[in-house]
Amino acid sequence: MTFGAYAMLFLTPLYLQTARGASALQAAVALLPMSLSFIVTSQLSGPIANKLAPRVPMTAGMGLMGLGLLMLALILFNDSLALIETALLAIGCGLGLNAGPMNAVAVANVPATRSGTASGLINTARMVGATLGVAVLGAVFANATQDAGTQGLASAYLGGGIGELIGAAMAFAFIRRDSLHPPTD
């Protein structure tokens, strides 16, 4: 979940400030719709997971994040602020849909005495994904940017989008419908 999203959070302000000439404040304001959409959808993710099963918001969330990153990869052809903000909105919604159900599924599938461990593992995995995303996609950006300007940015967004879509496929394939309840032996 965090591989593409955190790389995007690292690269997008750089792009907005260097290529588009935005100030740090303007870049922050451009990222604001993502944060607001995260706040709204994270409040809805629990009821959605309870009603439809966690597979639905987790698959949809990573799918939205992948779609948003693929939209950002179009920056080579269309760098309008409207496209960027729409993509960021999709990514924020995707993050919000994923956050709660992911922890709930992890905690529900271990004995109560291990719930803290499960929660900690999820948060560690999020940070590892974020670190790898920034490192790997940042390297893709830096390597391709030396020769092609925004080509590196598009390549990094494309890599992040593909990663998120793979995550969506894995969530769909492996998250059980009843995964909010401990498995029965």
Secondary structure: elements and pairs:
Blueprint: H1 2-18, H2 24-52, H3 55-73, H4 81-108, H5 115-148, H6 151-174
Would you kindly provide a written description of the structure presented here, covering whatever features stand out?
It is elongated and about 55 Å long. The chain has six helices and no strands. It is mainly alpha-helical. Helix content is 82%, strand content 0%. α2 (24-52) runs antiparallel to α3.
Distance linking N and C termini: 29 Å
**Number of continuous helical runs:** 6
Which of globular, elongated, flat, extended, rod-shaped describes the shape? Answer: elongated
Describe the largest sheet.
Answer: none
Number of strands: 0
- Stretches where pLDDT falls below 50 for ≥5 residues? none
Radius of gyration: 17 Å
For the structure shown, list the relevant keywords.
mainly alpha, 185 residues, elongated
Provide a brief overview of the structure.
With 185 residues, the protein is mainly α. Helices cover 82% and strands 0% of the residues.
